From TrEMBL:
Signal peptide positions on this chain: 1-18
Family, as annotated: Belongs to the cytochrome P450 family.
Matches recorded under Pfam families: p450 (PF00067)
Cofactors that this protein relies on: heme
Keyword terms: Heme, Iron, Metal-binding, Monooxygenase, Oxidoreductase, Signal
Binding positions (heme): 415
Source organism: Rhamnella rubrinervis
Domain of life: Eukaryota
Protein's name in the database: Cytochrome P450
High-level lineage: Eukaryota, Viridiplantae, Streptophyta, Embryophyta, Tracheophyta
Residue stretches spanning the membrane: none
Amino acid sequence: MDWCLVHFLLSFLILVVAWFVLHHRSSSQGRLPPGPRGWPILGNLLDLEEMPHKTLCEMRDKYGEVIWLRLGVKNTMVILSSKAASEFFKNHDLSFADRSITEVSRVHDFDKSSVALAPYGSYWRVLKRLVTVDMLVTKRINDTAFVRRECVDDMLLCIEEEASKLGDGQGVEFFTAMMRLMEWNGHANLGDFFPWLRWLDLQGLRRSMEKDLGQAIDIASGFVKEKMNNIIQDHNLGSDEKRKDFLSVLLGFQGNGKDEPDKISDRDINIFILELFLAGGETTSSTIEWAMTELLLSPKSMMKAKAELTQLVGPKRKVEESDIDNLPYLQAVIKETMRLHPPIPFLVPRKATKDTNFMGFFIPKNTQFVNAWAIGRDPDVWDEPLCFKPERFIDSKIDYKHYELIPFGAGRRMCAGVTGASYASPSFGLAASPI
Ligand code: HEM
């Protein structure tokens, strides 16, 4: 027999035996949550079909609110009810405070500088504090409202025409690269499920990521350099205090000398800035697109949204961000949109830092946790869960801090942009667009 074939068969046999041993060992330490049985090696990869968030939601009737899957080598726990999510975030948030790192996010060492992927520790703490305390606080959001006003005006004039005016075309290149990064990130990568296949990069995702992330980092570092020169100039002219924006805060950061880095390196700043663009761009635009789609499908809701806008803003002036607080129906439209179509349906996966007992189940260390789209459609919490009914949020106390509605995640690793992104940006984008 051909030696290659023998080699292949032997490797296959070893993997099958290893699978049985590992599977038996983890189950013997306690009861794992129920779930479809799966295949040797592949585990449940074939059970997920084309739209995993929908398939998993449908599994709830058969297996219950907490499901166990093996995706190649990755142990995965899926939570499908608001009750289980509440138990998870209230009592187990810390045990799942680390992230599961994918193969493409290791490209250019992105994961080492990222705040969203950082291990739960001092680097993450410093950067998260800077975003939530220095960047996305109400005052700074209000101070920069005029920038978003200009952007929306430009969008209304004509995105392409405006984009082509960006001189050397770097803005266009940057956003094209960003769109591609989102795409490579969103692909299921065989290298994540079968680490021994990583080096082959069968889908070419690593190569594509290297090219597009490299380009985006170069452009972002150009922005940062330009900004640094401005800061130096302002400093020389003695006018630096007046113009302290977020980038200046990052550049001027000095650690406490104990558990914090002394300063944030240029490389970390470049990646951090890039990451904020990534985190806030597609999520906000997908929310606006879904809201428009739902309103077009629901003429009654569309009429109510328009009537509210006409009454408050009228035909003579443009809608402003400061109007949003007085547009409760529009805010309800955004909440209802995010309930049905959370832009990140599985959230950003977290990983168990130690063996954990969750709702009577044994969850081994390194299990990745994905939180399903199903929570916003939990029939135990939502009346007619599949219907688009913004009215359910009028006079309701439910907001993004409740475990029934978690498009921004919850707990320690909750979205850092929730203050601005939760209602201001999408509502403003929607209100200002020609619906
Ligand atoms: C509609 C808009 C947005 C949605 C739906 C969204 C959603 C999310 C989700 C689901 C997570 C993971 C939460 C978890 O693990 O529990 C996250 C994390 C994060 N988001 Fe957002 N996001 C949005 C906008 C933004 C914006 C505008 C920014 C900043 C400019 C931002 C910055 C971040 C950061 C830094 C993290 C990592 C937090 C951590 O790991 O501690 N996001 N976001």
